[in-house]
Amino acid sequence: MPNLPWEILNPIIRSLDPFQAKKAANALSFIDEDESHRLWRTIFKDDAWIKMALNCGSDPVLIGANLRTVTNSCQAKKGGKPLYIVLRANDWSGDTRYAGVTSLRRSLRTDHCYDQKNHEVTLPKLSWYNTANKKITVPKIKLNVKDIVFGAEIMELKGKTTRKLFEQNPLRSNFCFYSSGNICTLASPNIVGVGGSISQRDALTPICVLNLPSSRHQGKIWQFTIETPGCPPVKPILKNGKTGPIVEYRY
After folding, report:
1. Which of 126, 171, 193, 220 is spaced 20 to 30 A from 136 at the CA atom?
2. Does 227 score more than 60 pLDDT?
3. 2 pLDDT exceeds 60?
4. Residue 213: CB atoms within 10 Å
């Protein structure tokens, strides 16, 4: 199998999850270059927590700007700002919250530190050489784990923190479901705020919702709502009146 052409081997590897792919790569002496696999393995040292979450019916996803560049050494310059990423379990059952953040931390890289006040995990800048002797460097990462602690549908974040999740011109972010094997782009009209879909970072506050198509549940759209502390009362407007996704907020 190691002698198979990459055109045949690549689809096989992409059908595996990040840690299955790593085991296959080690056994068959090739390099797993899949960017989504690298992303998850940059944050997690093993898949114990992820397996638990998946067994509960959850749909874990990472959300943040520039996720595709996590393993790009040019993004990890000395003194660079940490990459801010949110981890969402998308857990209908609430079991991941009952398991607690301690269960999650056991699966994260061992060199992390945890800010209990802000529910953020800091993963320091990391460099290593792959089997081809190529140096791989990832930047310092701040991982928001509030969803794992509280499991609330709405996450409260300061405006400046929310803006860290997005690039501007055009307004966009990235998301990566563990089960999908893809890093996807999130942009308007799937970023919704007061008055409807938004395309400017200033419009992310006081409240916004991100529409994330599920990788595990066909036709399911996970809606991730972020509001600033002291958000004024707003009314969500649903696509079908009383059902469906939120398409705008109104004061």
Report:
1. 171
2. yes
3. no
4. 16
Question: Concatenated DSSP letters for the chain?
Answer: -TTS-HHHHHHHHHTS-HHHHHHHHHHHT-----HHHHHHHHHBS-SHHHHHHHHTT---EEEETTGGGTT-GGG--TTPPPEEEEEE---SS-HHHHHHHHHHHHHB-TT-EEETTTTEEEE--EEEE-TT--EEEE--EEEE-HHHHH--SEEE--HHHHHTT-BTTTTEEEEEETTT---EEEETTSEEEBTEE--SGGGG-SEEEEEEE-SSSTT-EEEEEEE-TTPPP-EEEETTBSSS-EEEEE-
The answer to whether 246 touches 196, Cβ cutoff 8 Å, is no
Whether residue 144 is predicted with pLDDT greater than 60 in this model: the reply is: yes
Percent of the chain residues topping a pLDDT of 70: 87
* pLDDT tier at 4, thresholds 50, 70, 90: low
Mean pLDDT of 210-228: 89
CB 245, CB 223: distance < 8 Å = yes
Report how far residue 214's alpha carbon sits from residue 13's, in angstroms, rounded to the nearest whole number: 21
The one-letter amino acid at 134: K
Higher pLDDT residue, 79 or 49? 49
The answer to whether 140 and 84 have CB atoms below 8 angstroms apart is no
Query: Where along the chain do its domains lie?
Result: 6-26+33-250
Confidence of residue 132 (pLDDT cuts 50, 70, 90): confident
Residues 176/61, Cβ–Cβ less than 8 Å: yes
Alpha-carbon span 226 to 210, nearest angstrom? 8
